[in-house]
């Protein structure tokens, strides 16, 4: 998945714009209608033809993987932007949860798809992403000192399960906010 983004030759600006519109449209359409939505709906939302969609993404799993890769890259950029901020951990956790709200059906579908991402590599990438912000939050006394990155991944999985079958984006947002608040209450140190 990540290799495709880094090994391919540079794209023309209009081709890159089309690809970005397709990823943004897919994120919206998958959030609204689920992962099995007809791909034509995504092409229409992006304002491109079917040929452009299939030239960029041979199937829905390739499109889903591109969304997932884009999400991870955005989280890594957020972590870099707040590299010295002790509040970066909660900002990062909130951003991850927001991505889960928008992409609730994506991870289960990708994991069962024909070109499932390398889970070990993704887990390692998430642990690296969370490690620095978690250490800084712990040093500031904002997060309990015994928490490790693997615990945070478990928290994220729990919140993901809480939003998975919610009937709408608004319902997923409410469930995620409640679950995140309950989790954060458990993550802060006890005095």
TrEMBL record:
Positions of the DNA-binding region: 38-57
Segments traversing the membrane: 152-171
Keywords: DNA-binding, Membrane, Transcription, Transcription regulation, Transmembrane, Transmembrane helix
Alphabetized Gene3D superfamilies for the sequence: Tetracycline Repressor, domain 2
Keyword Protein biosynthesis listed: no
HTH tetR-type domain segment(s): 16-75
Pfam family, one: TetR_C_43
InterPro entries noted in UniProt: Homeodomain-like_sf, HTH-type_TetR-like_transc_reg, HTH_TetR, Tet_transcr_reg_TetR-rel_C_sf, TetR_SbtR-like_C
Protein name in the entry: Helix-turn-helix domain containing protein
Organism from which the protein derives: Nannocystis bainbridge
């Amino acid at each position: 998945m990540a290799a495709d983004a880094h090994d391919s030759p540079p794209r023309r600006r209009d081709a890159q714009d089309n690809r970005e519109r397709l990823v943004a449209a897919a994120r919206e359409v998958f959030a609204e209608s689920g992962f099995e939505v007809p791909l034509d709906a995504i092409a229409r939302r992006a304002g491109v033809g079917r040929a452009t969609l299939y030239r960029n993404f041979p199937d829905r799993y390739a499109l889903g993987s591109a969304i997932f890769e884009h999400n991870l890259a955005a989280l890594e950029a957020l972590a870099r932007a707040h590299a010295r901020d002790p509040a970066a951990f909660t900002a990062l956790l909130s951003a991850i949860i927001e991505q889960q709200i928008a992409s609730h059906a994506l991870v289960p579908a990708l994991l069962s798809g024909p070109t499932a991402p390398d889970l070990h590599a993704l887990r390692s990438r998430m642990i690296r992403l969370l490690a620095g912000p978690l250490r800084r939050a712990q040093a500031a006394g904002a997060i309990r000192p015994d928490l490790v990155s693997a615990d945070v991944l478990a928290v994220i999985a729990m919140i993901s399960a809480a939003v998975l079958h919610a009937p709408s984006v608004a319902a997923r947002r409410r469930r995620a906010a409640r679950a995140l608040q309950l989790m954060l209450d458990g993550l802060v140190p006890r005095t």
